[in-house]
C-alpha cells in the first residue's frame, strides 16, 4: 500500500509523546502533489501554537532532538478527499467554515487554512504554465508567419505594371508612370511586329525599352496567385482564409445580413424615387441615422451608388438561390454585368442539401459593356440565410478593407436580394445594390451614366434576372413558339431548342469581348490617343465552338442622340441591315427562315437568316435580339451552312463554330421624367485573324478590322444624324 501523504506540523510543548506515537514515523518530503498537502518551500506550520508557546515562555526542548525541528503530520485519505470535495464547492472558505471543517476532520484550523492556500497556488501555477506554453507556441507560429509574409511581399509583383509592390520601394507617382509605360510598351510591341513588313519603316525613330517586359495574361494571373496565395491575401484560385480571421468575417457577414433585411423592407424616407423617375435611390442621411454602419465611413475618392428594385421572376426560389451561390451559374446568368468571377473558399458550407448558413469568399469583376470603361474588381464574402418559409436572403459585403495592400477602387457595402416564393413557380425578388466606387477616370462618354448610378443599379440586376429566367424557361419548354414566314421550312422542337442553345453560347461569347477585363491585355488599334477602338487577341486550339487560329477581338463605343428603343428597333430590323452591315451581307438583304421566341416581348427572339436562293454566296446567320428597360442587345454570327443544316436535322449544336458580332445598347444616363435621353452603343466584332494559332498577327488584319468596325459605327451615326435633322 502507498504511504499516506503528510503535512508539516510545528513541534511545540502542547504535543506529547503519545501524539507522536499515534502518527507513526516522521519523514521529510518535498512532494508537490496537493493530494499530499505540500508545495515545495511552503510548509504547513502550526505557527500559531509556536507563537503562543514563545509568548508563554515555554521554550522546553526535547534533549534527544535538535531545536526547531519540524514534524510532518500525514493527512489521511479521508481528510484529503473531504478537503478536495469542499474545495470544489468553495475554494475560499472563511474562518467559520475552516473551523467547522477542522472539527469534522480532527485537524487544526490553521492546517485547513494552509492546505487551501497551497491548493489554490498549485492550480494557479498549473494554469500559468499551460497558458505560457500556449502563448509560446502561438508566438513561434506568428514569428514564422511574419517572416514568410515579409519574404513574399518582398517578391510580390504588381499584376498591372509588373513592378514591385513592397511598401516604400516605389512612390505613387513612380507606380503610375510605370503602369502607363507598360501599356505604351505593349502597344508599341504589337505594332512593331507588323509595321516593318508593310511599310519598311520602324514604328518610331527611337527605341523604347520598357522597365518590365509585357507578359501574357496567364503569367500575370500566375504571379497574382503566387503572391496573394503565399501571404493569405487576394485573389487566387487557392485563396484560403486563416482560421483566426473566419470569426471576424462571419460576424461582418451577419451584420451585413441584418442591414440588407432592414434596407429591403423599408421604403420612404430611406428610399426615394430616383432622378430617372423609375428606380429607388438611397437617402444617405436617413441611412446614416437608422442603419448600423459595419464598414465605417465612405473612403476618400469613392462615390456612393445605392438603389433598390423589385421584380417577379419565373423560376423556383431555390433555383435562384443555387444560381447565386454557385459562382459559375451566377457569372453566366449575369454575364452582362459580371466579366469574371471566382469562388475561393467556402468558410461554412451551410446545411446539408441547401445553402442555408453558407459563407463563400469570392472575387468578381463588374463590367459596364464598353471598352472605354474599366471593370470594378471586388473581394467579398457572400452569405446565404433562410429567413422563413419560402423566404431566402443572399448578401455580399466587401472584405478587401481587411487587406491594406490592395488598391481599393470599389467596395460593396451590404448588397444582395430577398427571394420570396409565390404561387405557380414564380418568386418575388427584392434587390439592394449599395457600392462605393472610384469613377474619377471614367471616359466622358459614360460620365453621365456612371454618375447617375444606372450602369450597375439594382434595376439592372433584377431586369437581367427576369430576362434570363425567361430565356431558360423557353429553352426547356416542350413546345417552343416560332414563326416560319411563308412556310419555307418546318423546324422541329428539338431543332428550335438547339438553335436557342447556340444563341445562348453566342451571347456569352459576345459579352466576353466588349469590356476590357483585367485578365486580358487590350490595346488601341489606332495611334490616335483619343480613339475608342480597343482590341485583344486570343488563341483558339481545341474549342469546338470556335474556329482554330488567332481570334482578334475589337470593340468601340459611340453616342447617338436617340433613345435606346429607337436604336434597338433599327438594328434588329432585317430590312435596315444594308444601311449598316458592312461585313456579312455583301449588300444583299437576308431572308428570315425562322423566328423563335425566347421571351414574353415579341422582340426577344432568336432568328435564323440566310441569303436569297438567287445569291451566289450561300450563307446562314443566327441573330438574337434582347431588350429590357435597362439594356438592349443585337448579337449575330455567321454559320456554316452544312453544320447548321445538320443541327436542324438533330445534330449536336456544340460543334457549330461561332464568331459573334453585335451591339450593346445602354441609356446615356441623361433621361428625366418627360424627357428621353440618348443612347450609348458598344459595337464588338470577333474576327479570325490567322488560321495558324502560332502565327503572328498581321498588320492587314489589324487595319481591316479597325476599318470595318469604324465604318459600321460611322454608318449608324450618319443614319441617325439624318433622322434627327
Automatic annotation (TrEMBL):
Q: Where is the composition biased (Basic residues)?
A: 66-77
Pfam families linked to this entry: Homeodomain, PDF2_C, START
Keyword Acetylation listed? The answer is no
According to the lineage, what is the superkingdom?
Eukaryota
Where does this protein have coiled-coil stretches? Answer: 118-152
Q: Which InterPro entries match?
A: HD, HD-Zip_IV, HD-Zip_IV_C, Homeobox_CS, Homeodomain-like_sf, START-like_dom_sf, START_lipid-bd_dom
Q: Does the keyword Chaperone apply?
A: no
Q: Region annotation Disordered: residue ranges?
A: 1-77
Q: Give its localization.
A: Nucleus
| DNA-binding region residue numbers | 68-127
Q: Which UniProt keywords apply?
A: Coiled coil, DNA-binding, Homeobox, Nucleus, Transcription, Transcription regulation
Q: Where is the Homeobox domain?
A: 66-126
Which segments show compositional bias classed as Low complexity? 11-37
Coarsely, its chief localization is nucleus
Q: Which residues form the START domain?
A: 242-474
Enumerate the PANTHER family for this protein: HOMEOBOX DOMAIN-CONTAINING PROTEIN, HOMEOBOX-LEUCINE ZIPPER PROTEIN MERISTEM L1
What does the similarity note say?
A: Belongs to the HD-ZIP homeobox family. Class IV subfamily.
Q: Please report the name of this protein according to its UniProt entry.
A: Homeobox domain-containing protein
Species this chain originates from: Brassica cretica (Mustard)
Amino acid at each position: 500500500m502507498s504511504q499516506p501523504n503528510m503535512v508539516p506540523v510545528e513541534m511545540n510543548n502542547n504535543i506529547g509523546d503519545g501524539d507522536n506515537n499515534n502518527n507513526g514515523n516522521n519523514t521529510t518530503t518535498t512532494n508537490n502533489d496537493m493530494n499530499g498537502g505540500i508545495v515545495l518551500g511552503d510548509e504547513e506550520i502550526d505557527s500559531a501554537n509556536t507563537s503562543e508557546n514563545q509568548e508563554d515562555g515555554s521554550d522546553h526542548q526535547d534533549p534527544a532532538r535538535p531545536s526547531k525541528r519540524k514534524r510532518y503530520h500525514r493527512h489521511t485519505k479521508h481528510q484529503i478527499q473531504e478537503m478536495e470535495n469542499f474545495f470544489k464547492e468553495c475554494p475560499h472558505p472563511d474562518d467559520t467554515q475552516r473551523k467547522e471543517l477542522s472539527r469534522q476532520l480532527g485537524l487544526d484550523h490553521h492546517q485547513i487554512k494552509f492546505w487551501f492556500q497551497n491548493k489554490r497556488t498549485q492550480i494557479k501555477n498549473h494554469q500559468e504554465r499551460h497558458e505560457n506554453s500556449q502563448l509560446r507556441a502561438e508566438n513561434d507560429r506568428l514569428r514564422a508567419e511574419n517572416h514568410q509574409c515579409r519574404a513574399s511581399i518582398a517578391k510580390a509583383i504588381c499584376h498591372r505594371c509588373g513592378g514591385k509592390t513592397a511598401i516604400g520601394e516605389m512612390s505613387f507617382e513612380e507606380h503610375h508612370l510605370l503602369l502607363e509605360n507598360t501599356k505604351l510598351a505593349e502597344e508599341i510591341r504589337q505594332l512593331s511586329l507588323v509595321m516593318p513588313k508593310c511599310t519598311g519603316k520602324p514604328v518610331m525613330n527611337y527605341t523604347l525599352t520598357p522597365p518590365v517586359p509585357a507578359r501574357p495574361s496567364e503569367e500575370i494571373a500566375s504571379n497574382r496567385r503566387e503572391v496573394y496565395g503565399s501571404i493569405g491575401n487576394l485573389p487566387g484560385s487557392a485563396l484560403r482564409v486563416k482560421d483566426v480571421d473566419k470569426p471576424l468575417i462571419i460576424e461582418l457577414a451577419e451584420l451585413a445580413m441584418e442591414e440588407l433585411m432592414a434596407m429591403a423592407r423599408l421604403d420612404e424616407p430611406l428610399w426615394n424615387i430616383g432622378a430617372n423617375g423609375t428606380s429607388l435611390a438611397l437617402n444617405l442621411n436617413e441611412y446614416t441615422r437608422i442603419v448600423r454602419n459595419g464598414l465605417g465611413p465612405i473612403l476618400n475618392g469613392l462615390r456612393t451608388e445605392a438603389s433598390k428594385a423589385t421584380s417577379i421572376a419565373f423560376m423556383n426560389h431555390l433555383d435562384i438561390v443555387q444560381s447565386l451561390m454557385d459562382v459559375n451559374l451566377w457569372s453566366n446568368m449575369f454575364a452582362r454585368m459580371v466579366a469574371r468571377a471566382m469562388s475561393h473558399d467556402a468558410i461554412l458550407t451551410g446545411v446539408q442539401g441547401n445553402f442555408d448558413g453558407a459563407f463563400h469568399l469570392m472575387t468578381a469583376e463588374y463590367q459596364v459593356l464598353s471598352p472605354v470603361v474599366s471593370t470594378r474588381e471586388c473581394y467579398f464574402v457572400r452569405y446565404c440565410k433562410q429567413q422563413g418559409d419560402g423566404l431566402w436572403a443572399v448578401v455580399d459585403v466587401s472584405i478587401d478593407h481587411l487587406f491594406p495592400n490592395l488598391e481599393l477602387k470599389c467596395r460593396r457595402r451590404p448588397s444582395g436580394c430577398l427571394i420570396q416564393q409565390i404561387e405557380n413557380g414564380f418568386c418575388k425578388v427584392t434587390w439592394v445594390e449599395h457600392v462605393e466606387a472610384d469613377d474619377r477616370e471614367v471616359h466622358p462618354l459614360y460620365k453621365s451614366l456612371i454618375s447617375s448610378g444606372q450602369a450597375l443599379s439594382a434595376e439592372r440586376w433584377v431586369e437581367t434576372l427576369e430576362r434570363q429566367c425567361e430565356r431558360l424557361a423557353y429553352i426547356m419548354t416542350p413546345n417552343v413558339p416560332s414563326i416560319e414566314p411563308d412556310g419555307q421550312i418546318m423546324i422541329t422542337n428539338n431543332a428550335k431548342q438547339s438553335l436557342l442553345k447556340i444563341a445562348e453560347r453566342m451571347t456569352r461569347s459576345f459579352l466576353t469581348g466588349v469590356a476590357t477585363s483585367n485578365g486580358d491585355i487590350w490595346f488601341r488599334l489606332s495611334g490616335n490617343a483619343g480613339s475608342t477602338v480597343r482590341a485583344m487577341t486570343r488563341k483558339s486550339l481545341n474549342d469546338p465552338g470556335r474556329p482554330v487560329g488567332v481570334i482578334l477581338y475589337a470593340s468601340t463605343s459611340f453616342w447617338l442622340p436617340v433613345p435606346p428603343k429607337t436604336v434597338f428597333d433599327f438594328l434588329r430590323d432585317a430590312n435596315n441591315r444594308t444601311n449598316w452591315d458592312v461585313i456579312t451581307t455583301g449588300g444583299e438583304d437576308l431572308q428570315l427562315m425562322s423566328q423563335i421566341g425566347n421571351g414574353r416581348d415579341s422582340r426577344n427572339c432568336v432568328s435564323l437568316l440566310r441569303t436569297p436562293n438567287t445569291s451566289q454566296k450561300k450563307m446562314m446567320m443566327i441573330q438574337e435580339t434582347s431588350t429590357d428597360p435597362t439594356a438592349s442587345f443585337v448579337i449575330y454570327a455567321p454559320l456554316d451552312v452544312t453544320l447548321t443544316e445538320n443541327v436542324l436535322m438533330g445534330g449536336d449544336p456544340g460543334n457549330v463554330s461561332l464568331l459573334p458580332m453585335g451591339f450593346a445598347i445602354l441609356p446615356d444616363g441623361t433621361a428625366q421624367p418627360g424627357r428621353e435621353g440618348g443612347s450609348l452603343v458598344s459595337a464588338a466584332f470577333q474576327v479570325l485573324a490567322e488560321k495558324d494559332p502560332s502565327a503572328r498577327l498581321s498588320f492587314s488584319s489589324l487595319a481591316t478590322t479597325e476599318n470595318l468596325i469604324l465604318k459600321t459605327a460611322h454608318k449608324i451615326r450618319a443614319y441617325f444624324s439624318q433622322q434627327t435633322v
